[in-house]
Amino acid sequence: MPEVKGGYQLPATSNYVSSSWQDHKNRRPPSQEPGTDYGIAYGSTLRAPEDGYIEYVKTSASGAMGRVVKIRLNDGQSVRYLHLSRITVNSGQKVRRGDVVGYSGASANGKDWGVGAHVHVTLMPGHADTFGNTLDFARQVGADNDITIAFSQKVANEQNFLNAAQGEKLVVDGLAGPLYRAAVGRYQQYLKGRGWYDGEIDNAWGPKTQAGHEKRYAEWVAQTTPKPNPAYHRATVADLAELQWVNGLQKIAHLYGYGKGQAQSTWMDNKWGGGSQAGLQRFLDQNHGGSLAAWLRAKWGYTDNDDLWGPNMKAAAARAEAENYKAL
């Protein structure tokens, strides 16, 4: 999911601040690592504030900070927890929001009780250790504000088009993640170069992008639509009988009712009959609008702008059969 800065979980259950970030800055001399001190009982469970990974741990009680865990957050910021009694994670380990990373303590200056019991939380604006340039962690505590990406058929269609027409290599998952947005930005730049887009390169498929896309799409359709060929016809599941092997397709059909309750040796016979066809058609109806071409285009490399049964579609169907035979 896209990460948004802030919206962090408290390190422990208590939100009692014994010394604020501003208090640290107001000290004379100022703290060398301004942060937020949470006054919590010795041995309290400490949790990751957000998704990320453990950049490093310091298991010795030496120095003013004692035992330390640094978490590099996926949103581009990072936090350090100081004065721990025990650390339960290792460098390089991935953590999710709320995962246990250790237990609070009072370690410092080579002692387990070198300071009063608390956890010092340092929030840094990047991933480097910038102790003189820290942020107020307490001001960024709150509900998780990361954006959950939901499947969108519109996005899946756009991913398919960008792959087929613009040479992208996106996973067609219908999710508007960072790779998809970067590809949209490149497409906007392309449309701008063609004089079909006058908006900002904002990586968002909005109305202006759609208007330019409609011109590019019409051009691509004209370029890729094959000339009528009497040997071609609208593809149906019956055409799959031309494949040398159909066992992989029968495995899909079995998931949708073909040969239900029968031994595999009975229904997986490499014969593409009515039962096999009906099972696969149910799969297509429930997942791809009933279209064999749409399935092969979405998953198996069919890039022609039509639904005609010909050599290219047959090759894509053979790939689908082989991979599903291995996978199912």
Distance between the ends: 29 Å
Integer average pLDDT:
91
Percentage of residues in strands: 15-25%
Categorize the overall geometry. Answer: elongated
Rg, rounded, reads 29 Å
Q: What count of helical segments does DSSP give?
A: 9
Total separate domains? 3
Based on secondary structure, the structural category is alpha+beta
CATH architecture of the largest domain: Distorted Sandwich
Total number of strands: 11
Low-confidence regions: none
Residues in helix, % = 25-40%
Question: What CATH first level of the largest domain would be assigned?
Answer: Mainly Beta
Task: Enter the CATH topology name of the largest domain.
Answer: Glucose Permease (Domain IIA)
Give the SSE string.
EHEEEEEEEEHHHEHHHHEH
* Relevant CATH superfamily of the largest domain: Glucose Permease (Domain IIA)
Largest sheet: 9 strands, antiparallel
Structure characterization notes:
The chain has 328 residues and is α+β, with helices and mostly antiparallel strands. The protein contains nine helices and eleven strands. The radius of gyration is 29 Å and the shape is elongated. Strands 1, 2, 3, 4, 5, 6, 7, 8 and 9 form a nine-stranded antiparallel sheet that branches. It has a two-stranded antiparallel ribbon with strand order 10-11. The longest helix has 18 residues, at 207-224.
Please supply descriptive tags for the structure shown above:
328 residues; alpha+beta; Glucose Permease (Domain IIA); 3 domains; 9-stranded antiparallel β-sheet; two-stranded antiparallel sheet; 9 helices; 15% strand
